[in-house]
Every structure is written in C-alpha cells, then in structure tokens.
Amino acid sequence: MKRYVYINDDESSHELYCDNRISNRKYTVLNFLPKNLWEQFSRFMNQYFLLIACLQLWSLITPVNPASTWGPLIFIFAVSASKEAWDDYNRYLSDKKANEKLVWVVRQGIRKHIQAQDIHVGNIVWLRENDEVPCDLVLIGTSDPQGLCYVETSALDGETDLKTRLIPTACMGIDFELLHKIKGVIECPNPDKDIRRFDANLRLFPPFIDNDVCPLTIKNTILQSCYLRNTEWACGVAIYTGNETKLGMSRGIPEPKLTAMDAMIDKLTGAIFVFQIVVVMVLGIAGNVWKDTEARKQWYVLYPLEGPWYELLVIPLRFELLCSIMIPISIKVSLDLVKSLYAKFIDWDSEMIDYETGIPSHATNTAISEDLGQVEYIMTDKTGTLTENRMIFRRCCISGVFYGNESGDALKDTRLLSAVAGCSTDVVQFLTVMAICNTVIPIKSKTGAILYKAQSQDEDALVNAAAQLHMVYVNKNANTLEIRFNSSVIKYEVLETLEFTSDRKRMSVVVKDCQNGKIVLLSKGADEAILPYAYDGQQTRTFIEAVEQYAQLGLRTLCLAWRELTEDEYQEWSLMFKEASSTLIDREWRIAEVCTRLEHDFEVLGVTAIEDRLQDGVPETIETLRKAGINFWMLTGDKQNTAIQIALSCNFISPEPKGQLLLIDGKTEDEVCRSLERVLLTMRITSSEPKDVAFAVDGWALEIALKHYRKAFTELAILSRTAICCRVTPSQKAQLVELLKSCDYRTLAIGDGGNDVRMIQQADIGVGISGREGLQAARAADYSIGKFRFLKRLILVHGRYSYNRTAFLSQYSFYKSLVICFIQIFFSFISGVSGTSLFNSVSLMAYNVFYTSVPVLASVLDKDLSEGTVMQHPQILFYCQAGRLLNPSTFAGWFGRSLFHAIVVFVITIHAYAYEKSEMEELSMVALSGCIWLQAFVVALETNSFTIVQHLAIWGNLVAFYVINWIFSAIPASGMYTIMFRLCRQPSYWITMFLIVAAGMGPVLALKYFRYTYRPSKINTLQQAERMGGPILTLGNIEPQQRSIEKEVSPLSISQPKSRSPTPVYEPLLSDSPNSSRRSLGSRSSSSYSRNCKDN
Amino acid sequence: MTDTNRERRRTRETAFYLFTQQSLPACKPVLTPGWVITIFLCMGLIFIPVGLVTLRASHSVVEIVDRYDIECVPEPFRIDKISYIQDDSIPKNCSRFMKVHKYMKAPIYIYYQLDNYYQNHRRYVKSRSDKQLLHGRKYHDTSSCQPVELNDGQPIVPCGLIAWSLFNDSFTFIRERAELKVNRKNIAWKSDRDHKFGKSVRPFNFQNGTLIGGGKLNPKIPLSDQEDLIVWMRTSALPSFRKLYGRIEEDLDADDVIVVNLINNYNTYSFGGKKKLVLSTSNWLGGKNDFLGHACVVIGSSSLILAIVFTLLHLKYRRPYGDTSYLPWNRKSLSG
C-alpha cells in the first residue's frame, strides 16, 4: 500500500522500484508479429476470412487460386500492422528522446550529468529554469528564498496558467550546499493516476533538525512533463519514476467506441452470413444429389466409385468458398479509409476554426463520425460551453445597498466610486475580501503593469474589479501579500488557505494584518455555503434577495464574508488543521471537517454578481439542433435560477405558449416522489400537444430520483425533450448519460472543463470545447471544437454527410459482392452443381479489391443536399437519426437489386454467348465486364453530386478495367491471353454490354424516378427545390451571421429593475399548477424574447 | 486589395483547398421528367434500330443443324446404345443427308455440337496442365491432371480429363459424288497454337490405359499442330456448345444435298447427351443468334413505352416540383 522512499540512498531502492525508463510502446521487436496478429484475429470478420483462406489451401475444394483470398487478407493485415508498427516506432523514438535526455542528479554526494532513464527512486534531481521535469519529484529546494517555484502543467492537465509549488516546511532554510547531503524518508502511497492528490509524509534524518513528520501535498510536488518557469533552479527527490509516474499511470487506452452504424453493419453481416450458410447447404445437398445421379453417368468426369470419407463434405465446402465473397473483404478497409477521411474533413473545415484563438476543430476519434448524424440527446454543460467563461464583474450588493443596478456595471456606479473614495468601512472590507481571498498570483510585467494568474475565472474577475476600484493586489511574496488601497500599502500575512472544493462550495483564507496583528478569516462562496453560517442576529434577507435578483438575470453570485479571530482560537484550530492535513487516509474529508470548525459566525459583507456572457450563436445553434429533433439537456453545477435564465435566453426552453417548465424538487424521498409523479402526469397529458415541456431538477432531488425512482425518472427522461439539471456533480452527469444510453438513445455530451470529463467519456460521442478551463475536456473528448456554435456544423454537416456516405458505401459493398456471388451460384446450376467458378482468380480478386472499391470511395465527396439547405431545414436530420438510410429494409432493396442485376448479367451473357462462342474464358470476361459496367452506372445513379473526383473515379475505373485486362491479355502465360482483344473486336460484345446496362439500369432508373417524383421523400423534395433554385420557404430560418454582429447586445444584460414586480416573477415557475407556471414563464420570457427579435 | 489578401484568395481557390472544404465544384443532376423521358426515348430510339440490324444480320446467317446421335445407331442396337458404342468390333460408319435450303457463301463453318455435356464441371475443367501442354514431359508437376495423370508410372502427355475425353467423331462431306474440300487447318486460335501448345511436345503414353476415353492422337505430330485437341481443350462454359471442326471453302447452293459420312465413335449415350452436326455461314455478328436482336428490340420498345407512360403521368399529375411547403414541418408552421 505504501512506499518508503529513502532520500539520496544510492543502493536500497534500486531493485524495489523501476528506473526512469519511459516506455509507451505496445510491442517489442520480438512480440510484434504474434501480438499484433492476435489482436487482429480477435475480430469476427478477420477470423472468418482466415478460415476461408485456410480452406482455400485445400486444392480439392478451392474454386479459385488461394491467392485471391490470401492476397487481400495479407494486404489488409499488412496495412493495419504497418500502421501499428509505425505508431509504435514513433512512440519508441519519443520515448528514447525523453529517456536519453541529460539531467543533473546527485550521485555519491556529487552532482552528475546522467541520462534521464537512469534516475532511480530516491535520487535528488536538479532542474533549471524551463527544464522539463523528468519524473515525479518532491521539492526540497528552490532558488526562491521563500521556497516557492512556478510550474507550467499544461502537458498534464491542459491548464496554461502557472502554478506555485513550495518546498515542505521541514526543508525550509536548508543551505544550498547541504541539499546534496540531505537524508530522510518519504512515506507515500503507491503510484496512482490522481494528479490532484498526493498525501504523503516526509521525515528528515539528523543532522537535519526537526525529526517531525512533515505532511506533503500535491503542492509540494512537481510532476513529470511539467516545466519549471520563473524559477532559477529547483531540486527534488524522485518518488515515482518511469511508467509509475502520475502521468504514466493515467495514460491508458480508452475503450474503442462502436457506432450505431457499425452495429447495424455487423448485424447485416450476420444476416448475410446466415443466408450464405443456407445457400451453401442447399447447393451442397443439390450438388451431392446431382453427383450421385448424373455425374456418375458422365464417364468423362471419371468419378471414382468409392470416395474418401469426407467426400460428402467436399461439395458444400466448395460452395462455402465460392460464396465466401458474399461478405466483402474490402468493406473493412474501405470503411476505415473513408472514416479517417471524414475525420480529416472535420480537421480541415475552415468554418470550424475558432478565429479568436486560431484553434481548428479536431477529431480525435476517427471512427465515429456517423454517430454524429444519429445524435438524439445532447447533454451540455453550461459554463464555458454555452457561455464564454469570460467573467465580468457587473453588480454587487454591499450591506444591503445595490450597486450597478442602473447602469448594469457596478464599476461605473458613482455611488460605489464615492463610497470607495470615502473609505466606507463596509466597502473597504468588501474590497479586501475581493482582492485577497483567492489563490491568484500577481505578476509584474516589465512595463510595470500587474498581470494576474488565476486558476478560476471568477477570482480573476473579482481581483481585476477590486483593482479598478483602487484596491490593487500588488504583490505576493511567499506568505506576505501586499495590497495598495488609495495609495496606502497594506500588508497581510497569509496564515492558512482553506481551498475550494466542490463539496464545501466556499474557500477561505486566514490572514494576519501586519499593521495591527489582527487575524481575520476571509471567505467567499456560494450563497448556501455562506449565508446559513452568518452570526446570529445578522439580517441576511437583503442578501438573499440580492442573490435571487442576480440569479434571475443569469448572473453568477458569490457571497463574501469575514470574521475576526482571536489569537487563541486560531492557534487551537491551526493545530487541528495541521494534523488533518498530514493524515494519509481521507485527508480531504478530514480537512473539510476541520474547516467547518472555523467557518461559522460570519459577518456577511455582501454579494457579488459576475456576468458570464453567452457565446456567439448559441441560441441559434440550439434552436436549429432542436428543430433537427435533438433533445437538449443542460447539466450544470450552477444554481437553478441562473440555469433557467440561461436556458431561456439561449432558446433552450421555449417561452409561452409553446413552452412549459416543470420542477422536481424536495428534500426527502417522499417529496421528491410526489413531485416526480406530478411532473410525470403533466408530461403524459401534454405529450400529445405540440408543446415543449421541460423539467428542471436539482442535484439533491436527482440523487434521490436516480436511487429510488429510477423507473419513473427514466420514463420522464424519455418523455421530456428538454431538461435542466442544476447543481449536479460530475458523477451525476455521467449517471444521466448512462441512463439515456441505457434507453438506447444516442447521446452526445459537450463540455469544457474537468468536471465534464466523465460525462464526455461516458457518452456515445464526447465533444470538448477547447476553452478557458484548460484542455482537459478537449483531450478526453472524441471531438474538440473551439466554440459551441460549431456543434451545429459538426452534427448537421459532418455527421449527416458521414452517415449518408457510409450508408451508401456499406450497402453498396454488400451489393457488389452479392452480384458476383449470385452469378457464381447461377453458373453452378449449369455446371453440374459442382462448384466451378465462372471467374478466374485474378478477376475475382481485382473485382473485390479494385474495380468496385475505388469508384465507391469517391462517394466520400457526395452531398445529397447542399450545406445551406441542411442548415435551413435541419429537420432533415431525422432521416439519419431514425437510421432511414441503412436498415434491414433498405438493405433488402440493395439485396433485391443485386439479385436482379445478377440475373440480367447472367441471362444476357449465356444467351448472347451461346454455342460456338461459349468458350469459358470469353464468357467469364463478358459476364465480368457486364458487372463492371453495371457498377459504374449504379454508382453514378446513386451519386447526388458529381465533382471531378467522382467522374474520374467512376469513368476512369471503367477505362482502367479495360487497360488492366488488355495488359493481362497481352501476357502469353496468363490464362486470359488474347481474350480481351478478341472480345473488344466483336460487335456482339459491345451490343451485349449496352444491353446489360440498359436492362439492368432501366428498371432501376424508372423506379427511382417514379419514387422521386411521385412518392418523394423529404430529401428528394429539398433536392428538387435546390435544383429549381427558387425561393425556398425559410420559415423560422435563422442566419447566425446576422446575429453575431449584434453580439455586444447580450440578452442577459437587459436591466429592467423597474418593470420587475415586487415579488420575483419566476416564483410561480416553481409552483404546483402547470397553468400558472406557464403563464409566468411566458410573461417573463416574452420580454426578453421580443428583445431578441429586435436584435435581428 | 493588398498582396496578402490576393495570396489568400489564390490559396483558397486551389483544388486541394476546395477538396478539404468538400466544396469542389459539383454538378447535381436531378431526375427531372424532361431528362428521364429523354433518356428512355433515346434508349428506345437506339435499341430498336440496333436490334433490327442485329436480327437482320442473324437472319442472314444460314445454318443447317442435323442431330445424328440416335439416327446413327443401327436399329437393332437402339435398345442398348451404350453397349453398341462401347463395342469396338462393330463398325461405326454412318451416312447422313443434309439439304441446303438457302445459298451458303464460303467459308462455311462445320461445327459439332454437344448437348448436356458438362465441359464446365469442376472436376473436368481443373484436370489439365497448361505447363505440360507447353513444355511437355520436362514439366513434372502434373498433379492438377488427376485422375488422368500417370499410366504405369509414366506421365501421360497430354494429361488430364479434358484431353483424355477428346471428341473423336469424324466427318467427310460429299456433294454430287464429289468430295467437298474441308479445310481442317487454322481451326484453333493462333495464339493457342503459338503460345499455349508446345511445338516440340508430342503425345506420349496417351490413351494407353485400361480405360479409354475419347480420341487418340498421332504421337508423331507436335501438340501445336493437333488442332482438334486445341479446339477441344478450350472448354465451354455452357453444357451445350459447338466446336469448330473445319471449313468448307466452296459456296453451297440452295437445294444442294450433302452426304455426310461420319464415324460415330464418341459416347454420349451413357449420359443422354446429344450430338449434332452444324453447317453455318458467318458474318460480323458471328453465327446465327437471334437473342441479341430480340433482346434489343424488347428493351428498346419497353423503353419507349416507359417514356410514353412517364409523359402521360407527367401531364396528368403535374406536381409542383420541389415545393418545400409539402414538407411536414413547413406545413405545420404554415397552419400554426
């Protein structure tokens, strides 16, 4: 469970722990082949092909040269194996580079330059500024006299701000020279992947003072792959090395996701397999019967009277091999190829580049683009996803006085400015908390301006706002803070920082005023984490009102509070805190408990309101996607009122009379149950009406609902198109995704922060917004985009096209294999059911891998409707969602077509080439070229838009067919010698070809035309409309470009305090009667709605 | 306009950029009634004349077919034709009369036709060795020739079932007591004679076994000159096929009667096969084949019918084309 690291002990730990050799490789030179083959053969399709290929080695039963299966099989395997090998080789190179990097390490008391891979646990590693950290270290010394150093952790968690790390107290003040000789033991847990936690202890051995146990946290470590910044040097003890570092442990291969389409293709493959078995059995029996009745009479076949024991099996097995091409070997390769192209299209798309940051969209997972077109539920985070996550301090309420209500900006409120100028105590206290109750690091730039490095956007906003109100946070030196207020400098000593956790929902600092020695506790946090702990007798009513008012405007609120502490109280508590922070088990919980002992009897100073603006194009995107039939759920950690306001302003829930919001709440099981049932009842009634009914639930009620009333909640989830879940934890987000997935819905989760990672990984498709909260979400996601509005394009354009294209490609692949297979089956009836192959091996192989695979690949550029049309009529996505283009019935159509075409080719060929022309090689080439001609026209007919690529692929392929066959016909050794030249000289050959095309395509064209004109699908209608170029009805059409110009006018910053009724209007929302809530929701939102329209 | 702007525009227009944006210029054909009706009309207008021309060509071919397998078995043996054909002691000579009903211009091709003969049977097709045919006994790996590979431990050249079952009926033609000159040279493909059958490969150990299949070969003549064998070895894909026997290089007049003296050696009786003798002229289409002509006419006329039907449909149900107000979501919003 634990590891003991002896510092600077050169011998003891060498054998115990691995060295610092990093290895990300999956294979070694020796195990590559077996391991890779094993992996590839664990797939059913590959096993099937291998079985077929092995059966073909038996010359008695093989109808064609084994090369016709082995060739493609080996090719496919070679392609995927070499891809793996290449990736692995690159990993090896980057590992090697990291491993052979030279680092300074103390050996036998002397600093030496060694390769990074030779670092052992317990070694002391020295780093200079801008060095990469080679392994996980516990800091023991830095150049900074206060023991601080700065690290950039972007490689680890994607956060680009600098983080401070400090040396443990026990190592404070150790001389630079002595660091070489330091000895001690670090007791730390076994390697894990949690990069936010490190609960360990350090004990130094004499002569180094202090034999005390010194607690270590993640603050005392610098982890592998971080960079040392703004610090001249630092040194640390290696605790985890090689692949056991936190980074190494968190590296894992995610489970491959399977799209709904892949599942459908697998199902169809299974059906074809069954069909194949049936055909094989029927033909096998027929063949054996024919052999016993007819073939024995045919002396020229010379059947032996007594065959070997396996004789009965021979004919069925031959047919099995003959029919094995029913499952096209090329489909796998084609699909992989086009899927990676879909992903590339997403990467390339210049309309999905975030021009503010220059970050293009990226598809990390290249295999699931089709799923994007089949999304039914979108679970979205709020902050940073719908909003910009750029916080701006807008309003505040200090001791009951509202600032900023008139102008919408407290910083310009003259009353506040004069209060600041007049040094009103309340205001000064308020500003002090704003300025220093945080973990912000001020950095002086060369020009003298102060830049703030903050981990949270809220803190950044508060500190900046305080600075504008003349409370400037100037400097932080280890534990001393400097703030400048109206030209006087005040210094504070930071005694403790009680960090923010999502459970406590507040953070506090304990500081000591250096002037008068007073100890104060400064806190800020969510209203419910602060207001209940106000001292007895304080009137918190105005604050509650303020919070409600702000939340209603969609602002984020924080309550600020403080309390003076006595020296004794602090000392007593400090001991408890130290003890709690040095525990190894449940440290977080223990600390939280100790913290609550200090955080009470607050004097609440006021409420801040921070605006987080909606991103551009969010309402339009949501409206478009909702029209496309996608259900939206908002999962947020924010307050209910804020969430509802945001939801209203971004078209998430519709205003009256179209919308209705129901609420599930309650603190106990019974309450939740009752409210759930009531909502469910309303839902059932209204589900028939064309009305958007949404429900809102908070984290607590959700917990109960999921635990005890899962069934009812699931029903609710299915009935409701929209939901708002407030105050939910990351794991609840994931649970909700899981719930919808279990109902067989395709879910897409979109988020931007670390708290969305679980939801993103859980969903069928995870989309990460590479936003301001770092890249964590973007890294875990399948797709990363720069802005929420790109989601529309991602789904409607890329997802839809991918789905359509794959639907065509996969069915076509089966179709073309079936055509050739049916011809073989028909031929077996005129060849004595003996399993003769009409086509020779080369043709069969080339047909499957080349002639028919190349033209269809061009369908990756096919567009049934233009992007603009799809955006105007998002409802068309329904075809993809419902899987209308690839399902058993469409597949049956293709199956029927393949049967029809096989009959056409076969009948025409054997009649046109009867009697004296019936030579085997010629006839087979006639049939094959008939197929190729048909394929060209089938692909052409199914193509909706011809670009030059399609023309080249389709007609070029036809030309290539002849060129290739002429080449084969010119080789005397080949079986086809002179055949193609002979055929091309015969007029009857060309007549036969045109006959086949006309007979094969005529009915298909007629049928397609009839359906297209007289039974048009929605897609057809739109295609026609597009073609006519006439005015397409654009009811409810929304053009995002127009809106984005107006982005300065945010619907959120509408201030209308006067028109507001005394009681908050949203109150009836939460009432029982659906009618009342509907009315109020309508009246409330219609105002902002009309404003929206004006913006247009 | 600045240079950078122009540059950017140029890069935007390169084909690859357009490809990456999936916005290559494309034409989107739509199945408008005009197009479809035109296509079917054109198909009709092309296929009907082509079909008529083809039919005419086919009809201009004169073909005389005579089935002789039953007639050539003497009356007493008709009950048990198999024992008749297998009995070497009985002479197999037979005479047939063929009446020319129409003037036939030289060259007149002589075919023998076998029906219900499965030259495409898997066991049969595989049983040959192309390498041996070209290289002779130098080539040893003749396992593909099973079951006619070796005899008394000696390789058979040419090996395999196909060669072993060589057709061996022979025909001579007499018109008005004068023997018609039949050219038996150049009946096989030149490419086969030159590149597939060895010039120095002579039959060896052929038809020496206990089971005798079909015809024998003169061991002195190299395989490349054994044209009957070469023709026979081009297996047919269909169970009824004709193979070239020779050419008559004289014109035949209508009402000529040709006496065919044939030796009926080949056994088709055991499996109920038919043997026919075919005299046929040839033209650009090849032999007589009405199928192509008929099929073209049928396809052409059904295309015309479809074109007419679609025209009528189009005139009767004039549908507003591509009217998006038919889309359900628009309908809803129109009404609501």
TrEMBL record, chain A:
Bilayer topology term: Multi-pass membrane protein
Organism: Hibiscus trionum
GO BP of this protein: phospholipid translocation
Presence of the UniProt keyword Nucleotide-binding in the record: yes
PANTHER family referenced in this protein's UniProt entry, alphabetically: PHOSPHOLIPID-TRANSPORTING ATPASE, PROBABLE PHOSPHOLIPID-TRANSPORTING ATPASE
Domain P-type ATPase C-terminal: residue ranges: 778-1017
Binding of Mg(2+), residues: D381, T383, D752, D756
Similarity comment: family membership: Belongs to the cation transport ATPase (P-type) (TC 3.A.3) family. Type IV subfamily.
Domain P-type ATPase A: 101-162
Reactions performed catalytically: ATP + H2O + phospholipidSide 1 = ADP + phosphate + phospholipidSide 2
Organism domain of life: Eukaryota
UniProt keywords, alphabetically: ATP-binding, Magnesium, Membrane, Metal-binding, Nucleotide-binding, Translocase, Transmembrane, Transmembrane helix
Biased composition (Low complexity): 1071-1096
Region annotation (Disordered) ranges: 1046-1096
Residue ranges with Polar residues bias: 1052-1062
GO MF term (any one): ATPase-coupled intramembrane lipid transporter activity
Active site residues of this protein: D381 (4-aspartylphosphate intermediate)
One cellular component (GO) term of this entry: plasma membrane
Lineage, uppermost ranks: Eukaryota, Viridiplantae, Streptophyta, Embryophyta, Tracheophyta
Entry binding sites for ATP: D381, K382, T383, E459, F500, K524, R556, T636, G637, D638, R727, K733, N755, D756
Domain P-type ATPase N-terminal: 5-70
The keyword Transferase appears for this protein: no
Name of the protein in question: Phospholipid-transporting ATPase
Transmembrane segments: 44-61, 268-290, 818-839, 894-915, 922-941, 953-977, 989-1010
Localization: Endomembrane system; Membrane
Automatic annotation (TrEMBL), chain B:
Protein localization: Membrane
Source organism superkingdom: Eukaryota
InterPro entries xrefs: CDC50/LEM3_fam
Keywords linked to the UniProt accession: Membrane, Transmembrane, Transmembrane helix
Pfam family, one: CDC50
Main location: membrane
One GO CC annotation: endoplasmic reticulum
Keyword Hydrolase included in the entry's annotation: no
Transmembrane segments: 30-52, 291-313
Family: Belongs to the CDC50/LEM3 family.
Name of the protein in question: ALA-interacting subunit
Organism: Hibiscus trionum
